[in-house]
Each structure stands twice: as structure tokens, then as C-alpha cells.
Amino acid sequence: MTTWRFMDEGEPREGSWNMAVDDLLFQEAEEGTEQAPTLRLYGWEPHCLSIGFHQEYREACDPLYCRRAGYDVVRRPTGGKAVLHAQEVTYAVVARLDRPPFAGRSLEGTYGLIAEALAASLEWLGLPVVLTRRTLPIPPRGGAPCFLVPSEKELLVRGRKVVGSAQRRGRSAFLQHGAVPLHIDYEELRRATGQGREEAERYRAAFAGLGDLLPGLSALAVREALQRGFERSLKAEWEGRPLTEAERERAELLKARRYGSALWTQEGPGGAEGTADSPRTRFSALHSPPSTQPSAPLPPGPSKHESEF
Prior knowledge:
Helices cover 33% and strands 21% of the residues. The protein is α+β, with helices and mostly antiparallel strands and 309 residues long. The strands form 3 sheets. A 7-stranded mixed sheet has the order 12-1-2-6-11-10-13, sandwiched between helices. The protein has a 3-stranded mixed sheet with strand order 4-3-5, sandwiched between helices. The chain has a 3-stranded antiparallel sheet with strand order 7-8-9, with helices on one face. Helix 1 crosses helix 9, helix 4 crosses helix 8 and helix 5 packs across helix 6. It starts with a strand and ends in a 26-residue tail after the last strand.
């Protein structure tokens, strides 16, 4: 058994806070101030379109439509494509690469272990999940959402993708986070990402929400399933440990200076907080540790050598 830090945020929060906390947890693991692997579960309010770190803002979203619809827009610390976070549970796994259960694992190895835990979670819900490599007959267009992008370990239920994940590796730790949607509004997704009318049906054929496959499924049931799947697959033993006051202060700083900044969201690496890419960071779609001084510049963004969310 491995003791994990478990964080269930309960009430959904704004996208800028969610991304700041994921980034903070990654930084702590990279610095070594947090040694235990962490599973964090959270939701989004208001609904939010997150775009990949290197995406062009106006290619990734329709800003006017998002504003009219009341959607926040946030730039993730990870690469990949846009995700409309609405009726979903989002998970984040943060862990060091020199400690169980991920010690010595490659990018593909860590991604595979988590995919197996996610598959166990879906099986716990009674869903017929298949873990496979998926190919698409039509390559995704430049502004296409993340769920159209195939990955090495694809979680499919009845032929449709049900989880979209991204992993970022630093020197000593990694972060993987992913969306587990309950319901997907395909028309809203194509509007928020500025795609053509024909795309909604294409999305419907490619990916699905768990609640659409299992009517009546609740977010609470998905959260419980994620815990059970990690227990079964990774022998996780939970230690409930919310953010400390010091961690909250540090996350608020990241939110204020980066993830809550309109300039950062719209301009990314070229904006006020943009810095040179870090050559030492590898991705399946993430970013590097901050200075320990609060007044120091924020850490650099991810390398472009990444696969998709």
C-alpha cells in the first residue's frame, strides 16, 4: 500500500484557481516539499473553457461567444487543445518520480498506470471500458477540442472517448490532470471553440459523457469511483489533507499573476508573465517550479515537445 494525499475540493471553483492549485502541487512535488503522491478532485464554476499553453487565443476559442455565454477562459499550464469544463469531475495526479508507485517510470509508463486506475474506476461504475490506442479517420483541425485528439492509452466506452488527460514531467515529478465529463453539450462546445456547425455531430460520434452512457449517474458517484479505482489498481491508501494556509497564499499568488490575468490568458508565453520555454520539461501535454521567493518571476512555461490533452 502507498499513502496518498487526497484532496476533494467539494464546491466547484473558478478556472484560474483550479489551474493555480494544480500548478502549485506540481511545484511542491518538484521541489520535494511534498513527498506523497496526490489525487485531487474538483469542479468548475462558472463553466470554463481551458486552452492549451501554446494555443493561439483567438484560434482556440470564440471570445465574444464565451463572454455572452458566461464562460470563463483560462490558459492551462499544460499543452494540448481546448476543453469546455461544465458538468464534469476533473482529477489531478501529482507525484514524484523517485517514489512509489511511479518510481523509475517513463512518461508512457506513468500515463499507463494512471490509465489503468481510471479504467478500474469506470469498471467500478459498471461501464464496459476498453483501454486501447485509438486512431481517427479524419485528423483533428487546428482549433478542434481535446477529445478529438487520440492518445497512447485511450479509455473508450462503446467506441467513444470518455476521459481526456494531459501529463507534464519535470526533473523530479509529474502532473497529470484530466476531464471526466458527465454530460457534454456538443453545440456549446463547437460554439465556444469557434468551430463550424457540422462539428457538433462529429464530436458526438467521437466522445461522450459518462452520464449520457449511464443515465442518473451523479458527480458524487464519479468521485467515489475514482477513489475506488485508484485503491484497486494502485493500492492507494488515503490521507485527507486539504491545502494549508501557506499553500493557499501561494496559489492565490499564482492565480493573481498568471492564471487570473487576462493578458496571460490572451497572449500566453508572449504576455507580461511569459518566459522562454523550458527545455527540460516533457509532456503528454505541462511546466516548471517557481522560485521560493514570492516576489520572484513566475516559472517558465512548458516545452513545445508535447502530445495533446
